[in-house]
Amino acid sequence: EQPYCCGDCRKSFSDRSSLTQHMFSYTAEKPYCCGVCTKSFKVSSSLTQHIYLHTGEKLYRCGDWGKSLITSSGYTHHGLDHTGENPYCCSDCAKSFSCSSNLTLH
To answer: Which positions fall inside the C2H2-type domain (predicted)?
Structure first.
């Protein structure tokens, strides 16, 4: 059940905090501020992830290579190194990449 609904796009959420975070996507407001530097964020999870940059703590560890990563997306992209998978392909030259940001830079 998802009783909390956005009045703008009609997307629904299971809890009020998720709806509140979604509503920040419509504004430039960034209410979550880092206590170490001047960066601020729209959602609390982004601030939490950012704080790990200051502490050096890495939450995701590859059991095969012993590499540690800060973000779950970094861990996912690292996993593609093991498989050699490159799911992001350039439509102009057919070169492929393991992450979408590398395709965008290309």
So the answer is: 4-31, 32-59, 60-87, 88-106
60-105: CATH superfamily: Classic Zinc Finger (3.30.160.60)
Task: Indicate the residue type of 80.
Answer: L
Rounded to an integer, what is the distance from CA 106 to the centroid of its chain? 21
Domain ranges, ordered by start, for the chain = 60-105
pLDDT tens figures, 13-30: 988 888 888 887 888 888
Cβ(70)–Cβ(59) below 8 Å: yes
In contact, 40 and 30? CB cutoff 8 Å: yes
> Does the pTM of the predicted model rise above 0.70?
no
List phi, psi (to 5°) of 5: -120, 135
The pLDDT score that the predictor gives to residue 39 is 92
Tokens of 55: 């502490």
